Amino acid sequence: MDDFEPEEQFLQYARNGDLSGIQRLLLSTKGQETKININCKGKSKSNLGWTPLHLACYFGHKSVVEELLEAGADVNLPNNIGDTPLHKAAFTGRKEVVMLLLRYDACATVINGTAQIPKDVTQNAEIRSMLEAAERTEERKLEEKLLEAASEGDLSTLTQLLSKKKPPDINCSDLLGNTPLHCAAYRDQKLCALKLLKSGANPDIKNKNGRSWTPRHSIINILTIYGLLWKSSRFFGWCSYWVILQDGLVLFVNITQEVYQCLFTLKCFDESVHHFRVSPKTDPEASRKAWLDALDEHSAYSTHYCSQEQESEEEEEGAMSLGELTDSLQAAETCQKRLVQEVTEFLSMLKSDGLSHTFPATLREKMREICALSVETTSTLNICLSLFSRQEGVRSLKFEQEVEKNKILSEALQTLATEHHELEQSVVKGSSPRSALSEDEFHDAVSDSDSELSLSGFETVASHSFDEEEEDSNDEGSVMLNSPYSSMMQEGHHGNKNEVQPNGMTDHRTSLPAPMFSRNDFSIWSILRNCIGMELSKITMPVIFNEPLSFLQRLTEYMEHTYLIHQANASTDSIERMKCVAAFAVSAVASQWERTGKPFNPLLGETYELLREDLGFRLISEQVSHHPPVSAFHTEGLNKDFVFHGSIYPKLKFWGKSVEAEPRGIITLELPKYNEAYTWTNPTCCVHNIIVGQLWIEQYGNVEVVNHRTGERCFLNFKPCGLFGKELHKVEGYILDKSKKKQCALYGKWTECLYVIDSPAFEAHKKGDKKGGEAKKGAKGCSDEQEEPPSPTSDTVNVIPGSQLLWRIAPRPANSAQMYNFTSFAMQLNELRNDMDGVIPCTDCRLRPDIRAMENGDIDLASEEKKRLEEKQRAARKNRSKSDEEWKTRWFQQGQNPHTSSQDWLFSGGYWDRAYSQLPDIY
Hints:
Layout: H1 6-16, H2 19-30, H3 52-59, H4 62-70, H5 85-91, H6 95-103, H7 118-121, H8 125-152, H9 155-162, H10 180-186, H11 190-198, H12 216-220, E1 225-233, E2 237-246, E3 249-255, E4 263-267, E5 273-278, H13 284-306, H14 322-351, H15 353-356, H16 361-430, E6 459-460, H17 466-476, H18 484-494, H19 525-528, E7 546-550, H20 551-556, H21 563-570, H22 574-587, E8 598-600, E9 607-612, E10 617-625, E11 630-637, E12 643-654, E13 658-664, E14 667-671, E15 676-680, E16 684-688, E17 696-707, E18 713-718, E19 730-736, E20 742-749, E21 753-757, H23 759-771, E22 804-808, H24 824-827, H25 849-855, H26 859-882, E23 892-896, E24 903-907
Parallel strand pairs: 7-8
Antiparallel strand pairs: 1-2, 1-5, 2-3, 4-5, 6-22, 9-10, 10-11, 11-12, 12-13, 12-14, 13-16, 14-15, 15-17, 16-17, 17-18, 18-19, 19-20, 20-21, 21-22, 23-24
């Protein structure tokens, strides 16, 4: 031992647990007799890269470990493969040594070369628990430092903490529930607050007193500010601009004047920097301060309502972050070097004379083969790593180029949004009130009927003069014939008051508890500008763009015109039944007009029921799948006269300026009285002007309604708008018998009404309309140059003489525009009555807190609850994945549709027995 160098002796003493030898060398170091680095690393094969503390911890020499720590050994120093002494003690299960290291502030979160922290390398459950507790303690210490830095305004410490590889939780809280954002705001530390917001701090979190970081009204009521500023440009120097700060956006228009002093700089979200000077015509210092304060307010405003969390969905939960990939690459390189070294040493040992006679020749040959294979493997791995490194450089360059492209696109879209806003303002100022609405503009046609009952009959348009018919209509109202269902509905439902079922609602509300929050104060561009290049399904829109209904409740709006089904059931002719079913298929999408609000995505296991004795049906729906999102529903008549069911899987496509929703899934209507089943799919729905302009909706595509018993079919064509909007909302089609002979034609608008007429008359009208459309401009309701908006007693469909009215939409209530453009039926869907307590299950949409909060006008609470529910659903999914538990639907099961032989979700029964058990806790 005396022949070794002092440091080699030191390492050997630590390895062997020789406490006296360690103490002797440490004393000689103090007396300057020898020079020993207490953190020296071994150079021999047995201890290469290991410090004395590593060796003592690995072999469990507690007394030596304590002596080294007291002498100042670095407790967190890694060896050549990234392991700290805590890694070694945990790996060998040295519990007392682990406790000792933790007492000397050993870090429990250091990642080694194989991307593992100390708790990942131990097999001892007790040690793992100790390390997890230490990890939580470290995290809490960092959080306390973050809270203190935010309170004291220590921006450098705040930045340093947030820049760590494993930063503290930016939304952590103290005992009072105050987050770092609260602490910075209460102490008026504006720079720290802005840094926290830019780093992703959630502005919606409230403390235990229910207070957010800034009062809501201080954000909502911020004023638009505008004035003259000078902006620096690269080629033209300082140029004057008229700058408008509105809704979190900065808009400026160039004005050439002299350059004045009083400079300030604006750094935007895309890292671009703009320099401004205020005008000296007013107090320059005060003006500069006013602009900076306003910019801070608008920045907070934009962050508060227009930020969104891009949560990873189930299929991305296993994806690695960029940091994890970098760590894995470094670990792979370390392992590759270690493998090369070990193979080289092993080969040299095989060639040595001492081992030549120890093993049989066959075993030595096998060892050589394994070594050769290992060498080949390491060589291949080395090539792969070098290729990966080169590709990483190429990808980094491409990423920088894409960032620059996105920046250019962002600027172009910002310019487009500004120009569009200016164009809208000029159009509004330049147009007269009389011409504000024209035929090319999108509006609702208001029905002249006073009740839903009067809409259920047929309207006959006589074959005499169309002008005379219109005059009679204006004086006496539309000609409505009593339908079979009108009397049946009055006698069979309103008259039968003895049979009252649970939750059989009798009277309904006519408005929501609170009007909708104005979306005009929010810029959808401020959302999309941060989402360029992202997949559409990964963009989480703020709750302000939602409407207070679940998608399950939105599906229930199919049943608004149930009288058409009853009318079909009352008809003895199959063609007449097909007319009513076709009208029902068209009416099912009518409520979507002007409904640009997004319904809440249903949670897995969420349900909704609706029992309407006045309309003669009861419905149950359930969210049966989350990936893909599938909603199943089942409706049946209270008199067992029909069954209406289906499952919808909306497929979204983003086309740049519009979003297209294709509602995949078969819809089935069964009429047991005639042993008939009708199936169809809904048309495609498209929302236009996603980036700039006013949002509007159209439906287009072909819908085929099939009677599977008779072979009769109805082909409906929902026409796209076209270049000049002449075909907007139009629906045309034919009913064919089983021999494909046209029986009649259908036409109208899905937003207003649907008519039926003989096929020859319809085709003759279409030919005449093409040839001599100008001759019919004098007819009321078909003018292409109509300057006045349609009156409440007319519609915008060119009604052909001899037509029969199959369906007309009911007028929306007067307060519809303030209530998310809901119909009267839609306003009733989320109504929660006292008599529903104990009747509806705990999974019903009416009990969902985020929808209820939004309906009551509390946007902040709705946003918080929505996030909470999504996190709860995500945690439940992870728990099921860990326990290999599969989700089981409660009221529906997957099976074969008996009429189309395709896969469908079918009602399994039992819901209306009200025997709810084993329901999931989703709220």
